[in-house]
Structure formats: structure tokens, C-alpha cells
Design brief:
Elements (H helix, E strand, L loop, with lengths): L57 E9 L10 E4 L2 E4 L5 E6 L8 E3 L5 E3 L3 E3 L3 E9 L2 H11 L6 E9 L10 E6 L4 E4 L23 E6 L6 E5 L10 E3 L2 E3 L13 E9 L1
Parallel strand pairs: 1-8, 6-16, 9-16
Antiparallel strand pairs: 1-4, 2-3, 2-5, 5-6, 7-15, 9-12, 10-13, 11-12, 14-15
Length: 267
């Protein structure tokens, strides 16, 4: 898996007209315990205040790329806490974050959806978000229509990163433990949501591997991963200078086309 999300970074992403033929994979019950293939039973959300965060100021940085073309996108606005900047010609951004701040950057721009990152806290002075995929408004709406997501509900793109002990996320499956009433669909190797796919495919990184939809805004999300050889890392876990709490900001997709990312790790 490459550095960063969506990377969801979409932290994060969306998809083409094939969305219209996709169907939900449903929301199966959590799998039974069985060695490395067992789903992690840890709580999905951790209080950020309970994490031993980096004490000093931090710099967060990354590169925003288009979901479809994977090319850098200039002129998009990245905001976190009271800091804001614009991506340069290489799609890069950098923000200074005050000591003690929680991280939850957002990316916006003309003709693009509003991308919400999962909550994290700095674990080092250098916070690397890597490459972040940004869906255009039109591809976001294609995903909306293809998945029949309710406009009053949220979409959450699942980004899976791997520790050195886990060779690949391919073959993993998810169970949405909560909230009730949600659905999910995996992405095909064409990076499209495809209801016939039954596990994580070899999706081109840094795109997400699955999308969870019809999520009530503001609720805690508990997703469990089962994998034949790797194990889900419990929250909080640290990756590239930041510690993820498991909290995912979510908003109704109307009127702002909000597109959330959730980052999970296999180890």
C-alpha cells in the first residue's frame, strides 16, 4: 500500500458511470473469532484527549490528486483548525498546527466534493498525509446515484493501510457493526464500486477499497476487518506521524457533497 490515503483519504474517492450497475454487499454480522482472520473487538473510537500526543507544534503536509486521473490538483483549499492554505501546481499543501490540536483537515474546491478526513492527533513534528484522492462533484454524484445513497445520509470511503508485517490488504472483508441500517460495497480492480466483488480487490492505491453508505451523520462508526493472514490494528494506531482515534466526521451529502474518509490498518 502506498503512503497516505485515498488517499481518504478519497481519503478517499469516487467512481465512474459503472456505479449505476453496482449493488450493495449488505451489512453482514461480525465474523466469529478464528485466529488471524478474527475481527478486532476493540472499541472503534478513542478519546483524543486520552492519547499521549506530540507536545510541540507540528507541520502537516500532503499531495491532493484527482480520483480518476491520479494527477495533482492545484488551487484546492485545505483547512485544519484555524489554518488554511491552497494546493500548489504539484498538488502539495503544508500547514502549521498548534501544540495540543486535534487533526481533521478538510479539502474543498470548485467542481470537487468536500473531503473530510478522519480525526487524528500529531504523533511527531512531521505529519505526512501522503497522497489524497479527491473526487470531482460529478463523479461523487455518480457514486451517490449508483449506490442509491440517501441525500440526508453520509458516505464514508474506507482506506486500508498496511504495516510491514502485512504484505497486502487484498482478500480482506469488512463487517459494519454499527450504526445499524448502513450498507457497503467493495471496489473492483477498476476502482469502481461493484456489488459483485466480495472482498478487498487489488485497487490502485491510494484509492479506497470500499465505501460505506447510508450512514447517519454524527454517529460513531464501528467497522471490523477480517483478513486471511493479517490482523486489524485497534484504535488508537499511529501512522506517518499521526495517531488515529477512530472518529470519522460525517455530514449529509446535501447540500455540500460531503465525502468522508476512514483510515484503518492491517498488521
Amino acid at each position: 500500500m502506498s503512503k497516505g490515503f485515498l488517499p481518504i483519504a478519497c481519503a478517499i474517492g469516487v467512481f465512474a458511470s459503472a456505479c449505476s450497475s453496482s449493488s450493495s454487499s449488505g451489512t453482514p454480522s461480525p465474523p466469529a473469532d478464528a485466529g488471524h482472520s478474527e475481527a478486532q473487538a476493540a472499541p472503534p473510537v478513542v478519546d483524543a484527549g486520552a492519547i499521549d500526543a506530540f507536545a510541540g507544534a507540528a507541520t502537516e503536509h500532503g499531495v491532493v490528486i484527482d480520483y480518476g486521473t491520479l494527477k495533482p490538483q492545484a488551487g484546492l483549499t485545505v483547512t485544519d483548525n484555524d489554518a488554511s492554505t491552497t494546493t500548489d501546481e504539484a498538488g502539495a499543501f503544508s500547514l502549521m498546527i498548534s501544540p495540543g490540536s486535534k487533526l481533521a483537515p478538510q479539502v474543498t474546491g470548485p467542481s470537487y466534493s468536500h473531503l473530510l478526513f478522519p480525526e487524528s492527533v500529531p504523533a511527531a513534528a512531521d505529519v505526512d498525509f501522503g497522497q489524497l484522492v479527491m473526487p470531482s462533484s460529478s463523479t461523487f454524484m455518480l457514486e451517490q446515484v449508483g449506490l442509491s445513497n440517501k441525500m440526508t445520509q453520509a458516505l464514508v470511503q474506507l482506506v486500508v493501510v498496511t504495516a510491514p508485517t502485512c504484505a497486502s490488504a487484498v482478500g480482506g472483508t469488512i463487517s459494519v457493526v454499527s450504526p445499524a441500517g448502513t450498507s457497503f460495497t467493495y471496489f473492483s480492480t477498476d476502482s469502481l464500486p461493484d456489488g459483485t466483488v466480495t472482498s478487498f480487490a487489488a485497487v490502485t492505491p491510494p484509492r479506497p477499497v470500499a465505501v460505506v453508505y447510508n450512514v447517519a451523520p454524527g454517529v460513531a462508526i464501528d467497522i471490523q476487518i477480517t483478513h486471511p493472514t493479517c490482523k486489524q490494528a485497534a484504535f488508537p494506531f499511529t501512522y506517518q506521524g499521526k495517531t488515529y482515534t477512530g472518529k470519522v466526521p460525517t455530514m449529509a451529502t446535501e447540500p455540500g457533497d460531503y465525502n468522508s474518509a476512514m483510515v484503518m490498518m492491517l498488521q
